[in-house]
């Protein structure tokens, strides 16, 4: 193939042709114009891709960062050895047997979708925070709904506090997708059950007679039932554990039942780990 750039060298053409058809000034203008056109053609030819057989079309590949992000948050149903569950790491926490069983079943089934999660033990009035890999990141005492029970009254989230009876002030059991947000007073909270207006938040002062801070500090769960249903935690725990765990992501909150078997609430609970029967609510002293 001839060098296309050589076509712009019109000085190589016979002298009579140029003199018979154009003046010297016109010839120079034409030379420059055609030279630019040919140079553009050469650039286009060089930029053209190879034929389809030499350059197969492939879908764009995700970056390693995107893949990693998808892997962390996506449901894992492959059951491959690489995604096999590990043992829950409770570090120096000493939870009840029900918390241990639930936490391990969550990891075994990947029910949390590798998101951070909390387990609330209403009998012991404790909360345990885990990262997506099942490692405990903190635990503390909590204040819970005044009434014993695992369900919320219908429409309770739309009522004024003054219209909620003592027997309706329950902390519902179940699995909840939770996220940080702000309430009507612009206070940061962790929404647990939005429809029932149940959240986890820093302990509030409340009425002086409620002695909420003292109840949290006491060595027994017997006096931790005081709220309208929300879960109160120490401010330090909320700021240093909950906020960090749920920053920029959803998470899961598991609230163990106190009036029925855990398997009735959590169908994924490993039968080999769950107790044969659920004992009636008992409030033992924490150790």
Descriptive notes:
The chain has 287 residues and is α/β, with parallel strands linked by helices. It has two domains: 44 residues, no CATH class; 181 residues, L,D-transpeptidase catalytic domain-like, CATH 2.40.440.10. The protein is built from seven helices and ten strands. It has an eight-stranded mixed beta sheet with strand order 3-2-1-10-5-6-7-9, sandwiched between helices. The protein is globular. It starts with 14 loop residues before the first helix and ends in a 22-residue tail after the last helix.
Write the layout of secondary structure elements.
Blueprint (H helix, E strand, L loop, with lengths): L14 H7 L2 H24 L16 H10 L23 H13 L7 E5 L4 E5 L5 E6 L2 E2 L28 E9 L5 E6 L4 E5 L9 H6 L7 E3 L3 E3 L1 H12 L4 E5 L6 H4 L22
Parallel strand pairs: 1-10, 4-8, 7-9
Antiparallel strand pairs: 1-2, 2-3, 5-6, 5-10, 6-7
- Main sheet summary: 8 strands, mixed
Q: Which CATH-level-2 architecture of the largest domain?
A: Beta Barrel
How many helices in DSSP terms? 7
What's the CATH class label of the largest domain?
Answer: Mainly Beta
Q: Tell me the radius of gyration.
A: 35 Å
Helix content: 25-40%
Secondary-structure class = alpha/beta
Order of the strands making up the biggest sheet: 3-2-1-10-5-6-7-9
Cα distance spanning the termini: 89 Å
Kindly report the CATH topology of the largest domain.
L,D-transpeptidase catalytic domain-like
Mean pLDDT, to the nearest integer, reads 75
Overall outline: globular
Oligomeric state, counting identical vs distinct chains: single chain
Domain unit count: 2
The unreliable regions are: 1-27, 36-84, 274-287
Number of strands: 10
Question: How large is the share of residues in beta strands?
Answer: 15-25%
CATH superfamily of the largest domain: L,D-transpeptidase catalytic domain-like
Strand/helix succession: HHHHEEEEEEEHEEHEH
């Amino acid at each position: 193939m001839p060098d296309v750039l050589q076509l712009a060298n019109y000085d190589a053409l016979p002298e009579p042709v140029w003199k018979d058809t154009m003046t010297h000034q016109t010839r120079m203008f034409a030379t420059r114009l055609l030279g630019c056109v040919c140079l553009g053609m050469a650039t286009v030819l060089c930029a053209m891709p190879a034929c389809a057989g030499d350059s197969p079309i492939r879908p764009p590949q995700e970056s390693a960062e995107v893949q990693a992000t998808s892997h962390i948050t996506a449901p894992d149903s492959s059951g491959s050895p690489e995604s096999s569950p590990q043992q829950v790491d409770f570090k120096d926490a000493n939870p009840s047997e029900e918390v241990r069983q639930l936490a391990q079943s969550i990891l075994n089934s990947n029910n949390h979708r590798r998101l951070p999660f909390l387990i609330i033990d209403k009998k012991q009035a404790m909360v345990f925070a885990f990262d997506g890999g099942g490692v405990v990141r903190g635990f503390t005492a909590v204040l819970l709904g005044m009434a014993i029970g695992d369900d919320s009254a219908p429409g309770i989230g739309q009522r004024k506090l003054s219209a909620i009876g003592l027997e309706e002030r329950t902390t519902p059991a179940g699995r909840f997708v939770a996220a940080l947000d702000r309430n009507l007073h612009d206070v940061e909270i962790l929404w647990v059950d939005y429809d029932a207006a149940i959240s986890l938040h820093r302990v509030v002062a409340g009425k002086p007679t409620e002695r909420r801070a003292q109840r949290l500090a006491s060595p027994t769960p017997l006096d931790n039932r005081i709220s309208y249903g929300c879960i109160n935690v120490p401010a330090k725990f909320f700021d240093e554990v909950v906020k960090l765990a749920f920053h920029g992501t959803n998470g899961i909150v598991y609230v163990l039942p106190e009036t029925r078997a855990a398997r009735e609430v959590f169908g994924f609970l490993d039968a080999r780990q769950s107790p044969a029967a659920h004992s009636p609510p008992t409030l033992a002293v924490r150790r």
